[in-house]
Here is the input.
Amino acid sequence: MSEVFFAHRRSIGLKGRYRAERRFRTYGLSAIFISLFFW
Here is the structure.
């Protein structure tokens, strides 16, 4: 699933890829913690 996200972000561009990757990493971690909390 993460490979699909990285492939999609790679197609956007190298300049915004770093910011998007950092932002998506924080969003992913928060989503994982929320899902674990609600399970």
